[in-house]
Amino acid sequence: MLKRVAEHTQLIKAEAKRLGFLSCGISQANFLEEEAPRLEKWLNKNMNGEMGYMANYFDKRLDPRLLVDDAKSVISVLLNYYPEQQQETESYKLSKYAYGHDYHHVIKSKLKLLQQFITQEIGEVNGRAFVDSAPVLDKAWAAKSGLGWIGKHSNLLTQKQGSFYFIAELIVDLELEYDHPVTDHCGTCTACLDACPTQAIVEPYVVDGSKCISYLTIELKNEIPSEFQGKMDDWMFGCDVCQDVCPWNRFSKPHNEPLFNPHPELLSMTKKDWEEITEDVFKKVFQKSAVKRTKFSGLKRNIEFLK
């Protein structure tokens, strides 16, 4: 039995690598005891802002067995999105993860292939794929699976690749070998806390979501509060400041996923181009991008606020 569990684990990890995932870690599907009080405290302080969905399915967020019947293992994967080329420096900025195709679709299709592989090679395994859109605490599971540690900016960090990658999971009713968490290597560094334009990192490891530029430019549907005027550092969709200043990200290597390559026009657009963007250009440049979430009207609102 143990031999079979080990074989299954190696098979899955090898296939994840073949599919292009940066790394794959596995943890036992049980209740996230440490995260429960943290999440409750964060919600009670209204740090989720208008993201009401963060308070929904509280139990499911903490226990994968409520998402998949008889779940035994959480298979966590990382997919690199660090771009080879970046935007012009004198332009309104877009978070690097949004340069190419919407990651939800790219990762979901890879996870489905991994799921099919498990069924073909191991047998009838019940499971579900999760990419950032369901009540799953991605970073907590990735850390539990030994893929990295949660940094002071609350993103997952690795010594070899920094933090520019997506996290996704496959929760399955299959017993596997489990990995162990790695140690925290943030030390005394406070680069992310010092650099955050809106002081959203209120203390090490705690981000007030309602002050985060990513929240203000993507999740917030109402007007951006005037208190953030002049503090947005020209970010019109998302924000990478806490990652850009992190010393571990000097080890980031460009991805090799063609679907994450930016639209040819995107990188060369100037502030003037963005200020004059039409709905047709928006549709063309962001046809398959995650930027569609904020819609043309949302992007225009963000640019107007930055002018």
Automatic annotation (TrEMBL):
<keyword id="KW-0963">Cytoplasm</keyword>
<keyword id="KW-0560">Oxidoreductase</keyword>
<feature type="domain" description="4Fe-4S ferredoxin-type">
    <location>
        <begin position="174"/>
        <end position="206"/>
    </location>
</feature>
<feature type="binding site">
    <location>
        <position position="61"/>
    </location>
    <ligand>
        <name>cob(II)alamin</name>
    </ligand>
</feature>
<feature type="binding site">
    <location>
        <position position="167"/>
    </location>
    <ligand>
        <name>cob(II)alamin</name>
    </ligand>
</feature>
<dbReference type="GO" id="GO:0005737">
    <property type="term" value="C:cytoplasm"/>
</dbReference>
<dbReference type="GO" id="GO:0052693">
    <property type="term" value="F:epoxyqueuosine reductase activity"/>
</dbReference>
<keyword id="KW-0004">4Fe-4S</keyword>
<feature type="binding site">
    <location>
        <position position="212"/>
    </location>
    <ligand>
        <name>[4Fe-4S] cluster 2</name>
    </ligand>
</feature>
<feature type="binding site">
    <location>
        <position position="221"/>
    </location>
    <ligand>
        <name>tRNA</name>
    </ligand>
</feature>
<feature type="binding site">
    <location>
        <position position="132"/>
    </location>
    <ligand>
        <name>cob(II)alamin</name>
    </ligand>
</feature>
<keyword id="KW-0671">Queuosine biosynthesis</keyword>
<comment type="subunit">
    <text>Monomer.</text>
</comment>
<dbReference type="GO" id="GO:0051539">
    <property type="term" value="F:4 iron, 4 sulfur cluster binding"/>
</dbReference>
<keyword id="KW-0819">tRNA processing</keyword>
<feature type="binding site">
    <location>
        <position position="214"/>
    </location>
    <ligand>
        <name>cob(II)alamin</name>
    </ligand>
</feature>
<feature type="binding site">
    <location>
        <position position="242"/>
    </location>
    <ligand>
        <name>[4Fe-4S] cluster 2</name>
    </ligand>
</feature>
<keyword id="KW-0170">Cobalt</keyword>
<dbReference type="InterPro" id="IPR017900">
    <property type="entry name" value="4Fe4S_Fe_S_CS"/>
</dbReference>
<dbReference type="GO" id="GO:0031419">
    <property type="term" value="F:cobalamin binding"/>
</dbReference>
<feature type="binding site">
    <location>
        <position position="186"/>
    </location>
    <ligand>
        <name>[4Fe-4S] cluster 1</name>
    </ligand>
</feature>
<feature type="binding site">
    <location>
        <position position="239"/>
    </location>
    <ligand>
        <name>[4Fe-4S] cluster 2</name>
    </ligand>
</feature>
<dbReference type="Pfam" id="PF08331">
    <property type="entry name" value="QueG_DUF1730"/>
</dbReference>
<feature type="binding site">
    <location>
        <position position="192"/>
    </location>
    <ligand>
        <name>[4Fe-4S] cluster 1</name>
    </ligand>
</feature>
<dbReference type="InterPro" id="IPR017896">
    <property type="entry name" value="4Fe4S_Fe-S-bd"/>
</dbReference>
<feature type="binding site">
    <location>
        <position position="189"/>
    </location>
    <ligand>
        <name>[4Fe-4S] cluster 1</name>
    </ligand>
</feature>
<feature type="binding site">
    <location>
        <position position="196"/>
    </location>
    <ligand>
        <name>[4Fe-4S] cluster 2</name>
    </ligand>
</feature>
<comment type="similarity">
    <text>Belongs to the QueG family.</text>
</comment>
<dbReference type="InterPro" id="IPR013542">
    <property type="entry name" value="QueG_DUF1730"/>
</dbReference>
<feature type="binding site">
    <location>
        <position position="156"/>
    </location>
    <ligand>
        <name>cob(II)alamin</name>
    </ligand>
</feature>
<dbReference type="Pfam" id="PF13484">
    <property type="entry name" value="Fer4_16"/>
</dbReference>
<feature type="active site" description="Proton donor">
    <location>
        <position position="132"/>
    </location>
</feature>
<comment type="function">
    <text>Catalyzes the conversion of epoxyqueuosine (oQ) to queuosine (Q), which is a hypermodified base found in the wobble positions of tRNA(Asp), tRNA(Asn), tRNA(His) and tRNA(Tyr).</text>
</comment>
<keyword id="KW-0479">Metal-binding</keyword>
<feature type="binding site">
    <location>
        <position position="246"/>
    </location>
    <ligand>
        <name>[4Fe-4S] cluster 1</name>
    </ligand>
</feature>
<feature type="binding site">
    <location>
        <begin position="239"/>
        <end position="240"/>
    </location>
    <ligand>
        <name>cob(II)alamin</name>
    </ligand>
</feature>
<dbReference type="InterPro" id="IPR004453">
    <property type="entry name" value="QueG"/>
</dbReference>
<comment type="pathway">
    <text>tRNA modification; tRNA-queuosine biosynthesis.</text>
</comment>
<keyword id="KW-0411">Iron-sulfur</keyword>
<dbReference type="GO" id="GO:0046872">
    <property type="term" value="F:metal ion binding"/>
</dbReference>
<keyword id="KW-0408">Iron</keyword>
<protein>
    <recommendedName>
        <fullName>Epoxyqueuosine reductase</fullName>
        <ecNumber>1.17.99.6</ecNumber>
    </recommendedName>
</protein>
